[in-house]
Design a protein that fits this description.
This protein is α+β, with helices and mostly antiparallel strands and 573 residues long. 49% of the residues lie in helices and 13% in strands. It has two domains: 308 residues, Fructose-1,6-Bisphosphatase, Chain A, domain 1 (2-Layer Sandwich); 170 residues, no CATH class.
Length: 573
């Protein structure tokens, strides 16, 4: 296939300039974290990085069917000395695909004529939402119930099969690639020094060779127990990118048929590979919250109406590790306007949670590090009232994230009926839960009064964006919703000179109020209720635009990239 560059040289030179393209630096071959590893773990790390690189190849195909061909095209053009291809490749590697969105919510298409579709590469490129719904209705009416279930599972790639659709388990669809991942994991398990970690790698390798969700469940269950391991490896499976599956709830006839036939549509998983070295000191800090999780569960709104992961200390099946990052591939490493600071997995749709499996939080140290303190201070000078500068602390964002990830483990489960609004509501819940529990955790001794104010002021300040996001950006949509809700209820004001002043005594009660509303929506599982709530609160206000203009003046950053020198070195071995 012939490709045409979509961005001009002028635009490419701007977007690849360090002022516009931030860099997150992962470990290098000289990093003490790597140098200090035992020889067996160094050998294992090489195999894990190679496994993650193959996962990236798989996810690129799930993301867009043209990604791999475009990557080859760029590499061939670079060999010819094509500067436009060289700069395009920098952005392609950063966002890990042709199509993405930047921090200003601009859609970035690197190849002319190739637009992002709702179903990405997991569905036929020419499948419209309306045709999708009509085909499913006809298939259900024709009694093809199992076939529809295969289409609407998180594990399948959907293809056309004459006038209907067919879902193929991704293990079968990408059989050769997954076999190569399994081979690397098996080799890593033979040299890694930790028995429990090796057992997980073997289980995960087995799950990649047979299309059986229960095999993944066994691997997930073992993975969620890992606490004292030198190395970190995860195949991340998140469904934020699929914008097509959840639309089935918009069609009342189809939604009714799905319910009558006990079909639960689950958005497609997109895959990433995370490789790192566990940081013991950082992990010990994380574990401080574990003893408080049952108390948080008992203080969740309407907690008597649903079952939670934590009801007593003995039930707290939650491990957590702080990780020095070596590699983040595929969905986990795609820098699209932002990149994830941490993950709490497995998600509630995974089978392991039905067989007694727990959850595991992994925090990404190098991603959360602030490299430009001077720019940070300029930002505070522009947008935050001077009297509250003393309460802004970048480390407080990490404390807040710890709460956010753990709240993902609380509240109602199985909210697939919320369709395309599921992720927005869930992320909204995690944020408001983290904020709502700040006072309780202060009373319990997790935080000091000073840290309490730091978390609150830092959260409200960081809740402002440079531009209004698209509805598909779940993490950013919930930020706008929270920002509006906080302003409407007095959580902050803008001073006469348009600086944020946070009412620190009001923020936590406001968060509790919003959390209660969110939990009620999740309990009810009502698609229309979720849509109405989001439409009511997803409003870009005058206050947000004032601060956005100030943020744009301070920071020109549009996107970011990962610098992975240790991973690059290991991939060449």
């Amino acid at each position: 296939m012939n490709f045409e560059f979509n961005l001009s040289m002028e635009e490419l030179e701007k977007r690849t300039n360090k002022e516009y393209l931030a860099t997150k630096k992962f470990l290098t071959p000289e990093s003490p974290e790597y140098v200090g590893l035992k020889d067996g773990d160094k050998q294992a790390l090489k195999h894990l990085v190679k496994a993650a690189s193959v996962i990236e190849k798989i996810n690129m195909q799930l993301d867009c069917k043209y990604n791999l061909a475009f990557k080859t095209f760029l590499e061939e053009e670079i060999k010819k000395g094509n500067k436009q291809a060289e700069l395009t490749k920098i952005l392609f590697d950063a966002q890990k695909g042709i199509n993405a969105i930047d921090s200003m919510s601009n859609i970035i298409n690197l190849a002319k004529g190739i637009k992002e579709t709702l179903g990405k590469g997991a569905y036929p490129e020419d499948l419209s939402k309306e045709e999708f719904h009509n085909i499913l209705i006809k298939m259900i009416q024709d009694g093809k119930i199992n076939e529809v279930k295969n289409i609407l599972t998180q594990r399948s790639v959907v293809i056309r099969d004459n006038d209907i659709l067919k879902g193929i388990d991704y293990i079968d669809y990408f059989k050769e690639d997954f076999s190569n991942v399994a081979k690397e994991l098996e080799q890593a398990s033979e040299v890694s020094t930790n028995k429990e970690f090796n057992e997980y790698l073997k289980l995960q390798a087995k799950a990649l060779q047979t299309a059986d969700p229960m095999l993944d469940a066994y691997a997930d269950k073992q993975w969620a127990t890992l606490q004292d391991t030198p190395l970190e490896f995860t195949i991340t499976r998140e469904n934020y990118e699929d914008e097509l599956t959840g639309t089935v709830f918009e069609n009342k006839e189809l939604s009714k048929l799905l319910k009558e036939n006990n079909i639960s549509p689950i958005p497609k998983d997109f895959l990433g590979g995370r490789v790192g070295i566990v940081n013991k000191e950082g992990t010990q800090t994380l574990l401080k919250i574990k003893n408080f999780l049952p108390s948080l569960a008992n203080n969740m709104p309407y907690c008597n109406e649903y079952k939670q992961n934590f009801s007593s200390e003995q039930d707290a099946k939650q491990t957590m590790v702080d990780v020095d990052m070596v590699y983040a591939s595929g969905d986990c490493g795609a820098y699209r306007g932002g990149i994830t600071l941490a993950e709490n997995l497995p998600n509630s749709d995974k089978l392991s949670l039905t067989i007694g499996g727990g959850l595991r939080n992994v925090y990404h140290r190098q991603i959360r590090f602030i490299s430009d303190k001077e720019k940070l201070q300029k930002m505070l000078d522009e947008i935050l009232d001077t009297s509250q500068h003393k309460y802004y602390l970048d480390e407080a964002d990490h404390w807040f994230t710890i709460g956010h990830e753990n709240v993902h483990s609380l509240g109602p489960k199985g909210n697939e009926k919320l369709g395309k609004y599921l992720n927005i509501i869930e992320e909204n819940k995690a944020d408001m839960g983290s904020l709502a529990f700040v006072d309780l955790l202060t009373e319990l001794g997790m935080y000091t009064q000073e840290q309490r104010k730091q978390i609150i002021v830092t959260f409200v300040t960081d809740n402002f964006l440079k531009s209004k996001p698209a509805l598909s950006q779940a993490h950013r949509v919930r930020t706008v919703m929270q920002n509006k809700y906080m302003f409407d209820n007095g959580g902050y004001i803008l001073t006469d000179n348009n600086k944020i002043f946070v009412n620190t005594d009001k923020v936590v009660p406001i968060a509790k109020q919003m959390l209660s509303e969110i939990i009620r929506i999740q309990i009810n599982g009502n698609f229309e209720q979720a849509r109405n709530y989001i439409e009511k609160n997803f409003v870009w206000t005058a206050q947000m635009e004032i601060i956005a203009q100030k943020l744009q003046k301070v920071s020109k950053t549009l996107n970011g990239k990962l610098e992975t020198k240790l991973a690059d070195y290991l991939l060449k071995e």
